[in-house]
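2024-03-11 09:14:02 INFO receiving multi-entity request
2024-03-11 09:14:02 INFO entity count = two
2024-03-11 09:14:03 INFO echoing inputs for audit
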Amino acid sequence: MIRIVDLSIRLLDFRLKNIHLEIQENEFFMLMGPTGAGKTVLLEAVAGLIPAERGKVLIHGEDVTRLPSEKRRVGLVYQDHALFPHLKVLENITYGLRFHGIPKEEGEKRLRRLIELLDIGHLMGRLPVNLSGGEKQRVALARALIVRPRVLLLDEPLSALDPGFREEIRNALKNLHENTDTTFLMVTHDFGEALALADRGAVIDNGAIGQVGDIHEIFQRPCSCSVADFVGMKNLFEARFQDGAAEVCGIRMRINEAPEKHHRYVAIRPEDITVARSFLPSTHENAFTGVVTSITSQGFTYEVHVKAGTVTFKALVTKKSLVDLGLREGLDVLVSFDRVSVHSL
Amino acid sequence: MRKKDPFFWFTLACGTFIVGYILLPLIELITSSSVSDLWNSIKDKDVAASIRLSVYTAGSAAVISFLFGTPLAFFLARYDFKGKRFLEAVIDLPIVIPHPVVGIAILGIAGKNHWIGQIISELGIRVLGSVTGIIAVLTFVGIPFYIHSAKNGFEAVSPRLEKVSRSLGASMSSTFLRITFPLAWRSMLIGIIMCSARAISEFGAVVVVAYHPMTAPVLIYERFEGYGLKYSQPVAVWLVLVCLTLFFALRILTLRKAKET
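2024-03-11 09:21:47 INFO inference complete, emitting structure
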């Protein structure tokens, strides 16, 4: 287990403020946040590469705050792989063994297992410069894991990869996590990665933790506007709550749970909003007629803005639905969503 | 063929002038002395001794720069701190200080009227007119060249490689020896050569601190003053050959480095 207690770090032009985090043993924990939020700083602080101004870092109950990086037994994988360019793949992977007093047979056993798990046997004699992005990252993972770190720290390990390799390494990460007794702490700003890999996570913004919890919970129930904004809750409205409903600019939305006293907003994920032709009856509890004001392509999906009264709903629509419904700007449509999709905050 | 621009001819003329201006005097110098003149001059004990002394003192200055400059160069490459620019400017100062002034300045603190000079003389170290004095001024003028080159070499090594190495259990010193040094040694060697080349050609600072024992540049000056151009030329050729050897080593290293990166 990793416990970060009241950790503060001051760098030249950046501060991490009073970070509290608890990461369970063997958990896959995701640190998310916008660029410049302090994710990498927190990761390097756990690795012992940046000194803490205040607070503690505990790994498996041991206070490592004052320990240098080489004594912490943490693994580190960066997005640019950081393979030693002058060493062959085999030398890269086995680099750490000599510092841990691992006997030769044991080292070879671990090497064989990692080669098998990561399918890198054919690369051993090559120099890093002759590897593809995906191969480099698999080698970097093997190099970090061969010394059996208590925690594996991953700094956006998929960001620098081509899409094909990204899936390959994502699967490799999942596979490794299931097959090794190591806690994974990963930094990302990709929601797909976060949802596909992590058990729990935290959103960090501007040097402070915005929310910690189950990874799906974070995406479905953000606890603040900035977290909601970050996790892509594009429909965020100021609301007044009464009688099991939220009123947003004259529109009444049914909600599932009674809001807390301090709640002032409702949020709905754009994926949870259905757009239909206005003459069709809706099966959802919340349904409003409106006019399509804009359609923007996002690659495989389209973001459709529908103005109902003075409220603009943002919905995600697949290309197929877009064509089937004949959506175009100015068309009258029906937007609808379940009451469970309306989240108050 | 397309008609060349007047600008092309202008560039060509300027370029030819500069290349000729550099090469002609050197070619004239090297061809001025016959092989027997060269042979006789190297058999001359004074000449051989002065070349040896020049190589020895310049080499010593480079070794001292390497020993003291490497940690500083690494520090400058890795850390940002208040006053870094100032520190870098201080390191560059020897490049702009006039050479005789360097000699005068070194003597100023090494003389009997200064407490440092008193300590040095009590330790039995003589600076004025000694090999120690020559090495002292050569280190002064040469060290910025070493630090610059070594710093560039360290900057080219990603700090992430060192971070990963440490996370794998290597201490700072193991990391330096196994990762940083193998990746930066070429720049360090280039720095050593540049420092030696700068030091071996030094005249102004050396002549103030030590006319005797004579380094090659001082001997060339003495032969020229005392006997004329003809007698200084063979010595000059030997010095040029030493410098060209350093120069070719430098070119080979820099070309290899460019190829690798």
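2024-03-11 09:21:48 INFO post-check: Chain A has a mean pLDDT of 91.
2024-03-11 09:21:48 INFO post-check: Chain A has two domains: 2-220, 233-345.
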